[in-house]
User: Fold these one by one.
Assistant:
Number 1:
Amino acid sequence: MIDALHNGFLSLLGPMLGTLAWTLFKIVLIILPVFGAVAYLTLAERKVIGYMQIRIGPNRVGPYGLLQPIADGVKLLLKEIISPSAASTGLFFFAPIMVLAPALVGWAVIPFAPGLVLADVNAGLLYVMAITSLGVYGIIVAGWASNSKYAFLGALRASAQVISYELAMGFALVGVLMVSSSLNLSDIVNQQGHGHFGGSFLSWNFIPLFPLFLVYLISGVAETNRAPFDVAEGESEIVAGHMIEYSGMSFALFFLGEYANMWLIGAMTSIMFLGGWLSPFPASIPVLGAPSIFWLLAKMSFVMFLFLWFRATFPRYRYDQLMRLGWKVFIPVTLIWIVVVAAWMQTDYSLWK
Amino acid sequence: MTLTTVIFYIFAAILIVSALRVITAKNPVHAALSLVLSFFTGAVLWMLIEAEFLAISLVLVYVGAVMVLFLFVVMMLDINFEELRKGFWGFFPVAAIVATIMAAEMVLILLAKGNGLESFTTVAPLPEGVSNIKQLGIPIYTDYLLAFELAAVLLLVAIIAAISLTLRRRKNTKYINPADQIAVKRNDRLRIVKMQAEVEVPEAPAAADDKPAA
């Protein structure tokens, strides 16, 4: 059916426009569910934290509050967009787009199931790293263009934090690409499907690379400026950080970008350490053992639940300790584990042959 | 005209416009952001000729790290740009001559016969399934290992030198060692004093006035 649709596009519009339209169609097929997931992650966040604090959470709009994200979206759309008089207007409205765009562009190389990927490029892992490093521009530009001290301080904090944790994240990825000897995300998942434990969850990367898994997960929380690493928008200190001057939809775009980034980190964690679309059961079990997109979605949702759980549990880090954790704890841990894995791969006990 | 050609011309136009903006923008932050855009567009052009590793490294290193720090500096410096721009027309003749000579040299070398540029006309596309990164990695770690390691050592020395040049111990710093903080025991901070629950109050004189003390 997919081939028929593809050929339909090509015969209707010719080879050039047909390819363009077909690619756009595939992009929409990925972006729309991402937006849906983002909207319902905000509801899940409020519900999960609510139950963790023995409250009910939103329950007024629709059954069990299920229409709450739509109500929120409509509210934000209808609000007035305010531009501070001393702001650099063009950049001020460009900044939220610069936060959201990289969070969406990263999805281009994420494989959802075998063959189900927009661009199956060889350098997928590097591509995701490069694209996520662009998100920091939106934050810096927002802080500068707002022409406000709080916004600028928040932007400086956020970007320093993002750059620091990106290093630890990059080193964690080096470990993954060493054991899978590929930068292609589909190959990384496939490599986790075989080994001594033959395709069950015991052959996934998170067991031999456990320190890197932990570092990646925690750095992911810090990358997305989520609690307990949300010093960039620490309410008690600098109100809302770089977002302080934004209102209505321009504020909502920052929010969308943050949650889309969270899902992206969830997808990357699932693909690199939790076996992607592979089933946790051995392939001998009939239905449960088959690889499918639902396993990937379940793993991503689990990682998202961890993010919400962290937020409900931990108090905010102090800024100097946050920097110490990134530079003096995570980077040495990853460096040591990369050397350990490299040595391990040279011995007869190597799991990755 | 294929889709790739269209994409090439679009991005080439963006690259030229943004490169011009770098030198014409009045605001230094706008200039720095234009530089970011031109780096990014340059990376896209490299990607079109299948140099994806170089393209992604350009984005990762220059756009993702170097330019962020550059922006930091530009945003936080308090420079009077009117002052800097004052001597513009004074320097213009010299700058114009230098620019003209550079442009003329480039045109001459590109137009010259027998400069060997003809062999660069087309890039043979890599066969399906061959990774550009692997092709790059194998010579780096086999044929050119020594040069690569030397470059790495040189960078390491530069890092250590930069850090040691800027590192200074400040006397008034309020740094607290986190290990000491964690190692603190209750008895270091808290002393529990046994007191009687009630204290005998000496007989107070009859209340003269009912105003509060403070």
Number 2:
Amino acid sequence: MATQLVRRVLGSQSNQILSATNLKPSSILPIARYFSADTTPIRATLFPGDGIGPEIAESVKQVFRTAEVPIEWEEHYVGTEVDPRTQSFLTWESLESVRRNGVGLKGPMATPIGKGHRSLNLTLRKELNLYANVRPCYSLPGYKTRYDDVNLITIRENTEGEYSGLEHQVVRGVVESLKIITRQASLRVAEYAFHYAKAHGRERVSAIHKANIMQRTDGLFLKCCREVAEKYPEIVYEEVVIDNCCMMLVKNPALFDVLVMPNLYGDIISDLCAGLIGGLGLTPSCNIGEGGIALAEAVHGSAPDIAGKNLANPTALLLSAVTMLRHLELHDKADRIQNAILNTIAEGKYRTADLGGSSTTTDFTKAICDHL
Amino acid sequence: MARRSLPALKELLKKSTNQCSGSLISTRSVTYMPRPGDGAPRPVTLVPGDGIGPLVTGAVEQVMEAMHAPVYFEKYEVHGDMKKVPEEVMDSIKKNKVCLKGGLATPMGGGVSSLNVQLRKELDLYASLVNCFNLPGLPTRHENVDIVVIRENTEGEYAGLEHEVVPGVVESLKVITKFCSERIAKYAFEYAYLNNRKKVTAVHKANIMKLADGLFLESCREVATKYPGIKYNEVIVDNCCMQLVSKPEQFDVMVTPNLYGNLVANTAAGIAGGTGVMPGGNVGADHAIFEQGASAGNVGNDKIVEQKKANPVALLLSSAMMLRHLQFPSFADRLETAVKRVILEGKYMTKDLGGTSTTQEVTDAVIAAID
């Protein structure tokens, strides 16, 4: 236990040192990496995950190889036994790998049912301090849904709020659940949202809230957003009540640009937006942690029913890998791969079954490689 | 007496002169047999509210007048920035048991609690009901939407229990009780049963809030066993919203805790045509308040108020619900048919539906369409 504690302290300290020396890790570090890209490839952790995970991870590896992305994957699998150091099926080494590399890609993971261990996603979130979940949502040209003008980014606070896990029964038949909002976490996510908006040439940030009812908690969140907004005068800042936001999203999603919100609202809105463009199978996602860690992930399930049948759609994981490249500021590679994916889907010749086609995962992947 | 015979005469005259076209002609039902004295006009408390409220409640007043509906209004000025609902308004609602209300603006973070919430709590209007359906003639992205969202209205995230633990750390309590969960579940199933609905879907986030939403689900499951004729299923709130924007036709009646209901109702209203056309109301054991279905706190912007272009359809349909609640089904049918006819014709629509009409023009069109 003691060694474990020491290790943890050391781990987080080394992170802090890292981020202290490189004041802006997201800007300086990747450039250094970029220049040295020819000689030393960037190491990134890869969790293929369960179910269809290994197949779609293979697809990502293949596309990256074809596009000659200077990335070397460090593959980690979910263990078969609970690691006492993480109280989860994820091993300490896997987590260390992400911490060391600073970037990772994760396929779908199914938490085995049972007690005495934490959910895999929760372990990653807590141990790596992944505080923001970023999901770019854009309509895929050629794939028709009922909404064809979606182009927005949802940024969700990921560590507190309604997901604090603090609940208790007051008396029989009366249950209380705590929602926690802190200034520190709200500032952090707001800061990231504005930073993201500026870095990606976005014009507007909307804070989503319900401060008319939860005046103090959501009020604090808004206050933090306003404070950060003042530092970014070139970006338009607005506040939208969550219920109104839902209505506006389904009536005219083009009204929004970047949305920043507390945990539960982010969960709901990001899934709603995924629905607008065709489901979780097409939505990329990236988690941002303290010290510039980025863990891109596919947010869909592990689909055990089609696992191993070469039928899975790798789009979400591929697009997530693209967001990872963007985080590393490998923009030309990111653009090339993204265009290849979008063109393949737009062309419509090779599509997996969930998009109404009949291609296998390998055919689809090959088509993308051909488009590169 | 004269007042009541007038509309009958008028109708007879109208019938002979203009035999309206199409399937929209309502056949008069013969099954409704009022008790003696049922035709006596009823008092209804009217709260015009803020923003577009006075405009749309004005429309209802005019239409009721034109129909000679057996209701008369007791009008009270209430505004969102008041500390609490004035005593005489509460007394009036308690006496009349029925209220029609425009939106009351909810001030942001000013230490004033929402009057909409206050009314619901004080009168124990535990169920909020929003009916979201496609109106023929109104083009939307989705078809075959016919969803009723029944939302618990008194507890959950709206408990109003918040405090600062230490500077920079704030806590908000969400309270779920067995009593309230059971009560809303019973209401939802009872509603489904009485209105020939086939399925009730409980919306939750019990994978995260295991105890709180778990209790809600447990209550729903218990009640569901008593209604074997009605299908019951459960859906997680984030998945629910995703399904709503992709396959809304799968939903029928939805029962939800407070906050989720707010979001789900607005999403459903959005896909079916917007909050400007969705009727709704809040009901408790004794009282009922009818208002625009979704977004009670959204009172429109100054521009709409200035140009007098608010959409009165939602509140007109809500007042049809109110007439039915007051046991005047034929008046309710006539009003509903008239509103639907105006929308189907598509000549008089406000800006949110893609038209350019003012509130008054739509109101006049509805009055003209009443048969």
